[in-house]
Structure formats: structure tokens, C-alpha cells
Amino acid sequence: RRQRQRFVDKNGRCNVQHGNLGGETSRYLSDLFTTLVDLKWRWNLLIFLLTYTVAWLVMASMWWGIAYLRGDLQQAHDEAYSPCVANVYNFPSAFLFFIETEATIGYGHRYITERCPEGIVLFLFQSLLGSIVDAFLIGCMFIKMSQPKKRAETLMFSRAAVVSQRDGKLCLMFRVGNLRNSHMVSAQIRCKLIKSRQTPEGEFLPLDQCELDVGFGTGADQLFLVSPLTICHEIDSRSPFFCLSKRSLRSEQFEIVVILEGIVETTGMTCQARTSYTEDEVLWGHRFLPVMSLEDGFFRVDYSQFHDTFEVPTPPYSAKE
Predict the structure, then answer these.
(1) N or C: which end of the chain has fewer CB within 10 A?
(2) Angle made by CA atoms 93, 99, 101, in degrees to the nearest 5
(3) What is residue 175's DSSP assignment?
């Protein structure tokens, strides 16, 4: 097989990297929430821990600073003296007071007195800042955990596509399947042909995208993905493969990108699974083995033969010929 650079890997990862953005990198900071969600888990956890640790230390230092400037640290043990925060003697006790206030634990040993207006202002600031940080970081972690990326891994595509006749017409076919019992609601499939071409004006398009019809007019692109389905693209005069024959397939260079979208039944979130087929992964004159069988009261799917094909008599000529 010829090994070449793919536009989309078999696992759906797009081989595109953005470089030389210049001043456009500021757009990532303006959309900070999406940037954090897109980061890898190890960076998310590191930012989560650092943000809370730094915020706690800064706020505890502010409480300690108020006690230091008022002289509460020197007179904290004087019962006749009214400090800003009772029973704050040093930085550890100020840190414990902040944690009790932030986590609404309230052991009752340390508390703000009414003779400390700066402490009341700091308490209000701490409450507002803590709510904002909690909403931002916890919301980010929740969205990242609920992303349906792992659900896409249970959507299976056949390793190869086949070209054979169906209903007397030459068709390009591949197979999709759902490994889970939970359904994909409103599942829809689309196909893109990625191929270089040159326009009549002389312009070279290195990655020109062309839509492959997989049943838009008939509704066949709307899938009821309960059992494995064979997706069919009819090669007719409107198809970009109209002049493709078994012989010319060996010299062609293209990539078929398949995109399967649907709503996850359990979470209601949209999920997308992708794969691609290069010209080396298109088998001329093959058909997929059946995987469905009727047993006692139910239909059984044998996924061990999901990728298997067998040869069938197919003319080696193009649909045009």
C-alpha cells in the first residue's frame, strides 16, 4: 500500500495545524472558557489546582494583612481588646478562617466583629470572587466531563469501502455500526471527497472538497442506527466517480471523509464521529459479509465480521463506460 499524508485519520483526528497566527492568538484569551475546555485533562487539572491554591493564599494574606495593620496579632490574647477577626493570631489561623468562610464550614471559633468595616468589605469581595471562580472552573470541568467525545469511539466504521453493483447500478459503499444499546437520535451521515484539482482558469486547489450524495433526496442519509447499516453512494452522471474504473482507481489519489452526527440519547448532546478512506482502501468488486442473524426472539449482530468482505462479479468499467 502507498503510505501518504491523510487529511483525516481513521480515528477521526484532523491532520491540520495552525501556525503563524501572529496577533490572532489574543482571540484564544478572549474566548477563555472554550480554550480551557479544549485543553488536555492534565493542563485542566493543573490550572484548576493552581487557581484555587493561589486564590486561597492571596485571600488569606489579605486577612492576615488586615490583622497585622490593626495590631490584632499582638493583642489577640487580650480579652478586653476587640479584634477585626476573633482568634486570628498568625498566618495559619488567618488561612483557616478564610477556608471556613469560603467553604461555609463555620466552626464558630473565628468570626468577624462589627468594629471592622474593612473586614466586612473584604468578606463581601471574597464571597463574590469565590462565586465567580467556582462557577467558571466547576462549569469548565463539568462541560469537559460531559463532552461526547468518548461516545464517538463506540461508533464503528468499516476499515475499507467497496465498489460493486446494487440494483443494477454501480455503487460505492461502506458500513457503519453502533456498539452501544443506547441510540443516536436524529443520526445523519455526510461524505466529502477531498481531491486536488485545477480549474479551467489555471487555479490549483490542493484540497478541494466535493459532496458525495448518500441519499439526500430520498432521506437515506437519515439513519436509524440500531443495527449496522451499509451506506451507499450511487455512481451516476452527477457523481465525481462517474469516470472511475477498476484500472484508473490504481492511479487516482483522493480521500473520502465520512462524518456521522447525532444526538446522544442519554445526555442530549450532539456527537460527531469521523473517518476517511483513501484510494488504497476502496476495494473494487467486493461486498460486505452479512452480520445480522435471527435467533430466538431477537436479532443478533456478529461484529467479528463487521469489516469482512467477499468478492462478487463486477464489471471493471466505469459507470460512464
Answers:
(1) N
(2) 105
(3) E
CATH number listed for the domain at residues 24-146 = 1.10.287.70
Mean pLDDT of 251-266: 90
Helix (H, G, I), strand (E, B) or coil at 128: helix
Q: 251-278 burial by CB neighbour count: b if 16+ within 10 A, else e?
A: eeebbbbbbbbbbbeeeeeebebbbbbb
Q: Give the amino acid at 110.
A: R
Q: Which sign does the torsion angle of CA 95, 99, 100, 101 carry?
A: positive
Every domain of the chain and the residues it spans: 24-146, 150-311
Which CATH superfamily groups domain 150-311? G protein-activated inward rectifier potassium channel 1 (2.60.40.1400)
Q: Which three cell numbers stand for residue 296?
A: 430466538
pTM, 2 dp: 0.75
Give the torsion sign (CA, 209, 214, 215, 219).
negative
User: What pLDDT is recorded for position 3?
Assistant: 62
